[in-house]
Amino acid sequence: MKKILIWSATGLLALLVLVQCKPNAEKTEPVQVEEAVIENTDSHQITVKEVLQANAYTYLLVTEKAKDYWIAIPKSEVTVGKTYSYKGGVEMKAFESKDLKRTFDSVVFVEGIVDPNPVAETETAASAPKMVSSKELTKGITLAKGGISLFDLYGTRDKLAGKTVILTGKVVKFMPQIMNKNWVHLQDGSNFNGFNDITITTLEKVKVDDVVSFKGKVVLNKDLGSGYKYEVLIEDAVLVK
Question: Which residue, 128, 129, 174, 194, has fewest beta-carbon neighbours within 10 Å?
Fold first, then answer.
């Protein structure tokens, strides 16, 4: 199925964004984690009635079984009147969106929504190029001293588990103040069997399109609950100057 998402992070990473069609230089609004009151793991089928775009999130007024309510997903293009599905979610009561200058009585933050159109999925899968491994780095990216590429990281991840590595790449997503950490998605142009993006947790602040080097611990098969699992995650990273 064609899934609208980012990537993505914790049991409350349903609050995050993982998909962003283009970099946004504006500051993303912090998430009011302390306001979360309900974690939902059920499946839902919804029809979109209204779309509101903020800096990092897309807010959707949806209807489900004759009930209208708001959900928020990573910033995405969504079609009004179309039916989608999603799983899980964390409900936030009295959530204030500083971007929209609006307080919602309730918003359910979810990882992403799925377009349940098998025809579109088949056509997309048939036309999409197959991902192959590549060691080549994006022009302008040079690995820091002692650093490794994403090709090396994913290709030797079993040996690297629990060890500290240095990665250099371009910031493609930055999600601040989620569970007291900032979440960074980094790419360097290389990929291993289609894995071309790494999620990093840090207290450092960076901007989308920055080329940076991070040093952090490799953690494998991280299960954060609510369906959020990472084959490889870099934790507690710091910037390498």
Answer: 129
